[in-house]
Design goal:
This protein has 4 helices and no strands. The protein is an all-alpha fold. The protein has a domain at about 20-75.
Length: about 80
């Protein structure tokens, strides 16, 4: 996975994939940046493969995993 650009503000939007981020951080105990580091460590994988890895290895729900992977693969990175 290539390096993603810095594009996020401190407050997450109310709609779209990033609207899930406060609950992801609360429920799974890691910051979005930490989750993105995990995704990068998985290497060059397709969207659904990354979703599957988050679900299988971290017990993340499908919606949360899908939102995080989508947002990350769009080139966004959390602070």
């Amino acid at each position: 996975m290539e390096k993603v650009k810095e594009t996020v503000s401190q407050e997450w939007p109310k709609q779209g994939p990033a609207s899930y981020f406060p609950s992801i951080e609360k429920k799974y105990g890691k910051s979005i940046r930490e989750w993105q580091d995990i995704l990068v460590a998985y290497g060059d994988q397709k969207h659904m493969a990354l979703v599957g890895l988050l679900k299988a290895e971290h017990a993340m729900g499908h919606g949360h995993a899908n939102a995080l992977v989508y947002w990350t693969l769009q080139g966004n990175v959390a602070d």
